[in-house]
Specification:
The structure is a single chain. This protein has 263 residues and is an alpha+beta fold. The protein has two domains: 147 residues, Fructose-1,6-Bisphosphatase, subunit A, domain 1 (Fructose-1,6-Bisphosphatase, Chain A, domain 1), CATH 3.30.540.10; 106 residues, D-Maltodextrin-Binding Protein, domain 2 (3-Layer(aba) Sandwich). It is built from nine helices and 15 strands. The strands form three sheets. The chain has an eight-stranded mixed beta sheet, with helices on both faces.
Length: 263
């Protein structure tokens, strides 16, 4: 893990900064919210968090590129390389602007197209998750209070707790029948939404989480956490995530069954 120890430590520093900014704006009376061209909301907290993270990365990792949801792609100040930080300043902005505490900052490091470090910080929930390739996955309020996490041992869909994104997105992709089949066959299904369902998979509280369409900043940080916790993370075709931008995350034991039903 020595190859990523410093990067993971830096990700925690970035998350500390993000948490201080976002929590100060959460449920703020003067929170400013606009609509982006795709009609999704963006708050002043989203932009402030991403600016702060980019500023620190520019000083600490001048040879690394950055991709963020709000400000796009930036080349490394010191020239192009194989490493890229991918940032979602506030995943779950719709929750954030309505005062729902299920939102978080997602921070990932990619080498080429492979996510090797992932951190999710959900300060309103008082919880953080992180992982690096070969190191395992952990959760806690901060690194000093961390516990290792691992996926469940559930082997049958009939015994599984299943999480998903909203059904309309599956209907638009022509895959609603497969989703309904899984929901009927599973022991329990709930739409926990955004990053949270994936973190519950990594913790073993939920057995699978699926979404039909995601951007790289939505998913990059989640992949190392789920896989280092012993899970499997692919796109809908079964290719390693991030793949085509869809996501199927599971404890591994249910994965092929899920893919077959979703096809």
């Amino acid at each position: 893990m020595t190859g990523y120890a410093d990067d993971l430590s830096l990700a925690h520093v970035l998350a500390d900064t993000a948490d201080s900014i976002s929590m100060a704006r959460f449920r703020a009376i003067d929170l400013h919210v606009e609509s982006k061209p795709d009609l999704t909301p963006v708050s002043d907290a989203d932009t402030a968090v991403e600016k702060a993270i980019r500023s620190t990365l520019g000083r600490s990792r001048p040879r690394d590129a950055v991709l963020g949801e709000e400000f796009g792609a930036s080349e490394a100040p010191a020239g192009p390389g194989s490493r890229r930080w991918v940032i979602d300043p506030i995943d779950g902005t719709k929750n954030f602007v309505r005062g729902v505490p299920v939102w978080g900052t997602l921070i990932a490091l990619l080498e080429g197209d492979r996510p090797v470090v992932g951190l999710v910080s959900a300060p309103a929930l008082g919880r953080r998750w992180w992982a690096a390739t070969g190191h395992g996955a952990y959760a806690g309020r901060h690194p000093a209070a961390a516990s290792p996490i691992k996926v469940s041992g559930v082997r049958r869909l009939a015994d599984a707790s299943f999480s998903y994104s909203d059904l309309m997105s599956w209907e638009k992709r022509g895959r609603l029948d497969g989703m309904l089949d899984i929901m009927r066959q599973s022991w329990r299904n709930r739409a926990y939404g955004d990053f949270y369902g994936y973190m519950l998979v990594a913790e073993g509280a939920v057995d699978a989480m699926v979404e039909p369409e995601l951007s790289l900043w939505d998913v990059a940080a989640l992949i190392p956490i789920v896989t280092e916790a012993g899970g499997t993370f692919t796109d809908l075709s079964g290719a390693p995530a991030p793949g085509d931008g869809s996501a199927v995350a599971s404890n591994g034991r249910l994965h092929e069954d899920l893919l077959q039903r979703l096809r």
